[in-house]
Design goal:
Elements: E1 9-12, H1 16-27, E2 32-36, H2 51-55, E3 57-60, E4 63-67, H3 73-78, E5 82-86, H4 90-95, E6 100-103, E7 120-124, E8 129-130, E9 136-138, E10 149-150, E11 153-154, E12 173-175, E13 180-184, E14 191-192, E15 197-201, E16 204-207, E17 212-217, E18 223-224, E19 229-234, H5 248-263
Parallel strand pairs: 1-2, 1-6, 2-5, 4-5, 6-7, 7-9
Antiparallel strand pairs: 3-4, 8-11, 9-10, 12-19, 13-15, 13-18, 14-17, 15-16, 17-19
Length: 268
């Protein structure tokens, strides 16, 4: 609960889609906290409140998140900011008796989520089934059903292939060529060319597969296994203007979460 005794919402995850959800719910007057890993592996860091874990705070389109803990989150809420708590203890979260729990880690598999009496449980994307481990699921697959509220059954199964943007799918992704520590020397928002070396993972070069805008890049210094997603390139030249704004996908998913909350009577 916050200082006024109101029960909060909890959003698990603070990546770019979770941030799109948080941004909309904050604008609508909901009170909530977010949880994250101690060392988030977020790619689109400019539009992810997970960046607050590294920097202490992060702002997206006028909404600010702050790194917090169980002793300080109420003060962050009182400042009209969003608390992001790394490695939040699940028992402590349960003790808050949240009105709603939003699973937004996009893990694509159930990592222990279940419905609980007295709260609404909403999950994003595949790996969950509405009416079973969640009260509602929101579709995250690009296409006609993106953002759809599902009240019975699962989301579209994970295809393992990203949606097409500018005619490119898998080519947009940047994966670690081998295991090691990530070191990008190009920055998010910069234009890159196919074949250009963007950095290194250990001794191996990170090479751009297509021309475009470096839209996402893992923070330097993280150690990753071979094949781990470490960045992405947007082939649209105009994407340079989008890197500080939640994506169309994030906004669509946020609309589905807002619909779920209102459908189950969880008002701001």
């Amino acid at each position: 609960m916050d200082k006024e005794g109101r029960r909060l919402l909890v959003i698990r995850g603070a990546g770019d889609l979770a941030t799109g959800v948080a941004h909309r719910l904050h604008r609508c007057g909901y009170r909530f906290l977010m949880t994250e890993l101690a060392r988030p592996t977020v790619i689109r860091r400019t539009v992810a409140f997970a960046q607050a874990v590294y920097d202490g705070g992060h702002r997206v389109e006028g909404v600010e998140a702050r790194k917090a803990d169980p002793d300080s989150y109420e003060q962050v809420l009182a400042e009209n900011r969003i608390p992001v708590i790394p490695e939040a203890d699940p028992d402590w979260l349960d003790s808050l008796r949240p009105r709603a729990f939003i699973e937004a880690t996009l893990s694509k598999r159930n990592t222990g989520l279940s419905r609980k009496e007295g709260r609404v449980t909403v999950a994003l994307g595949p790996g969950y089934s509405a009416g079973h481990e969640a009260d509602a699921v929101v579709e995250t697959a690009r296409g006609h059903f993106l953002g759809r509220l599902i009240l019975e059954g699962p989301a579209i199964p994970n295809s393992g292939r990203p949606g097409l943007i500018g005619g490119y799918g898998l080519e947009r992704l940047i994966k670690a060529p081998e295991a090691g520590t990530v070191r990008f020397h190009r920055h998010i928002g910069q234009l890159v060319k196919a074949g250009e070396i963007l950095g290194r993972v250990g001794p191996a070069d990170i090479v751009a597969a297509i021309d475009g805008v470096l839209r996402g890049a893992l923070i330097n210094g993280l150690s990753v296994p071979a094949g781990f997603k470490i960045g992405d390139i947007d082939p649209r030249p105009e994407a340079v203007d989008f890197i500080h704004s939640p994506s169309d996908k994030a906004r669509a998913v946020a609309g589905g979460v807002l619909e779920a909350l209102l459908y189950f009577g969880v008002a701001p």
